[in-house]
Amino acid sequence: MKRDNKIRLQQWIKTNCGIDVPVDAIYDVQIKRIHEYKRQLLNVLSLVHRYLSIKDTPAHERASKFVPRVVMIGGKAAPGYYNAKAIIKLFNSVCHTINNDHEVGNLLKAVFLPNYNVSSAQIIIPASELSQHISTAGTEASGTSNMKFVMNGCLIIGTMDGANVEIAQEIGKENMFIFGKDVAGVGEARKAMYEGNRDYVGGRLRRVLNALLGGQFGDINMARGILEGLPNGIDHYIVCHDFYSYLDAQERVDACYRDYRRWTKMAIIGVAKSGFFSSDRTIRQYAQEIWKVEPVSIPQPSSDSTKRVRSFANLPTAE
């Protein structure tokens, strides 16, 4: 079923984006509103690191070292949110470079999914194998789209934030790829950053930033201020602090994906234990604990249209 859905998404991408992507690759998806706290930027930096790592590796070793991956980001930015639009532009510049590098080929593809809406979600979510919910801990009020992914046999890479916390309670953290600082750790990281401790910008991250700022991925001028600010303490959402933990989690993803039985087991457990998030349970609990309302029985409808209308007690009958 998953493969059939991946083929359907592959065809959708070809039709709507004009990009050929392989089916035999991890379908890695982050679809949600574009916002700095949701950290699509962290995803982009990791994507650049992966690309550079592939390029560093001798051609004859790449197939054994890297799991093919299609990285997809989708979502809309608020009309006046400049930084969000800059991140979209940055990602598209990175996509263009990667997708046109024949040396990398199908080991890595990247796609911005346009005009994200319910209709496209019905194609994207069932095909997804890894879903990214990587907001800075303590910033996501809910973020329940991750529940939809789990119900569709998709694994989650994410922080202990928003609905990830509830999902971990139900399906077990061992069936997710958790990384990053918790809420307390975020506070400590910000304090250190504001006090001038910038040691967290290490070699791999510095190389990624230099590659972007140096023009290796085309026009990134819209995002230049964002990228230049990261190592200089303008990083409220601690993208730099969580970068290396995120890379470690992505390596765990690759190792797990190579083990088909283990990956499939984790996906099935996610589906089986996600029943807690059904709308039936949710609405029942809201009714009992918040709205304080009782269920009302609905009468069986009559086959007669007039009687069917009059079966509702509050409707007047004609004289």
Number of helices: 14
Q: How much of the polypeptide forms β-strand, as a percent range? A: 5-15%
Question: Judging by the overall fold, what is the CATH architecture?
Answer: 3-Layer(aba) Sandwich
Taking Cα atoms only, what radius of gyration do you get, to the nearest Å? 23 Å
- The strand line-up of the biggest sheet is 3-2-1-4-5-6
Helix content: 40-55%
Mean pLDDT across all residues, rounded? 94
Order of helices and strands: HEHHEHEHEHEHEHHHHHHH
The domain count comes to 1
CATH superfamily, called what? Glycogen Phosphorylase B
Q: What general form does the structure show?
A: globular
Poorly predicted segments:
none
CATH class assignment: Alpha Beta
Q: What is the fold-level CATH name, i.e. the topology?
A: Rossmann fold
Q: Please count the beta strands (DSSP E, at least 2 residues each).
A: 6
The first-to-last residue Cα distance is 58 Å
- Characterize the largest beta sheet: strand count, sense, and whether it forms a barrel: 6 strands, parallel
Description:
The radius of gyration is 23 Å and the shape is globular. It has a single domain, classed as Rossmann fold (3-Layer(aba) Sandwich), CATH 3.40.50. The longest helix is centred in the C-terminal third of the chain and has 20 residues, at 239-258. Helices cover 52% and strands 9% of the residues. It has helices at residues 2-17, 40-56, 59-65, 82-99, 118-127, 145-151, 163-171, 183-194, 203-213, 224-229, 239-258, 260-272, 279-291, 305-310, and strands at 26-31, 69-74, 108-113, 130-133, 155-158, 177-178. A six-stranded parallel beta sheet has the order 3-2-1-4-5-6, sandwiched between helices. By secondary structure, it is of the alpha/beta class. It has 14 helices and six strands.
